Amino acid sequence: MKSGCSSMVTKLPFSVPEQPPCRTQEIFSHLTDSIDRRERKRPLGLLSNFVSDQLPHCIAEIKASERPDEAVKALGRSINAMIAETDYKAQLLNLPQPEFGVAKTDIQYLVNCAYQMSAFAGLHPVDAELTVGGALRQLARVSCQRQPSIDVLSYEDMILTNPLQSDPRVYCLGSAGVEERDFCLGHLLIESELQSAMDALLEMRDAVGADARQCLAVCVERLEAAVCVLARFNERMSPDLFGQFRVFYGKNPYKDRLGPSGRFSARIVAVSVLLIGEELFHQKPQFYMDIYRLSEYYPQGCIQEVFRWLSPDKGSAGLQPSWLEGKADFPKFATISPVMERHGSEIRKLRASCVCALDRFTRMHRGTALKYTVEPGRPVVGVEASESVEAVLSQRLLTAAHQR
């Protein structure tokens, strides 16, 4: 189907994921135990080379060491010595935005590795901070100053700026590394489909004279494509290989910070708001409360744009709005509901098909997360200790979404 919604009226103020080639059938194929690095993306030179080529080997050596505590401390000293030899701060500040995104990912992969391996080796928090080191910590601080974000490895770092298609950053070697790359690439494929669905809904909402039928047809097509990618996770991902790499993306063991998680996809939030925003508010207000409460974990460009849609007072975008406290009406103009009111039964049926596709995606995501994390007893990285895993995974489900 060709999209009739390709000409966007609103210029999106955030970067969109690179359109991946159609690789759904390739992920989790288990046909190789090596990554084909087709095009090297190394914005920080030797430091990026280290992250891409040597870090997985260093991790394997630490895990096999008789003295992992000394081995991880040595790795920290080596990384900080490498940083001290070059003015990486100047490089970082002068990189064009796409290269900067990859550089920030390299830095956060190093910081996260230092913390996770320190925990593996049983280091005291003081020793863990020494392992991270002053030079690496300063570089991480500079990257977050240039592009404000959470001060740990984020979903944006792991999925959206990681050069997954050509030169991926991974922590594991061999088959586990390939599975790790495929796990991230699958999320990128889903992000691309969600972006197309979001574009179609924005066209319908904002463009005068937009073809609502065509926009909704594109939306349901792209959501169904996202379901197909997610089905590949559910059917083909190896639980053993998943367990080997997932430990590196857990909650920060020394800070009160969550790990990178599909929970923090701003595009699934955007599609949900556009398509079923008011219904979610009435049925699952916790959905909105948690987005505002945990906003720093989301890719900032996209989530801040969603907040602008939801804020009647444009100057307060990002702050919890008055409607969420029951002091104002939900802002319908953030959704496609006002457009739906001008159309008949055919458009309503198409919108219902979109809602059902979104519901299938959410249900499959919940089932897959339970299958690979909760049932085997692995921690769910994007959920706080005080939260119910089932409640978090069900936040985007409408109670009547199965009804057509």
UniProtKB/TrEMBL annotation:
Protein name in UniProt: Uncharacterized protein
MF GO annotations: heme binding; metal ion binding
Gene Ontology BP annotations: L-tryptophan catabolic process to kynurenine
SUPFAM superfamilies: Indolic compounds 2,3-dioxygenase-like
Phylogenetic lineage: Bacteria, Pseudomonadati, Pseudomonadota, Alphaproteobacteria, Hyphomicrobiales
Keywords: Plasmid
InterPro entries listed in its UniProt record: Trp/Indoleamine_2_3_dOase-like
Top-rank taxon: Bacteria
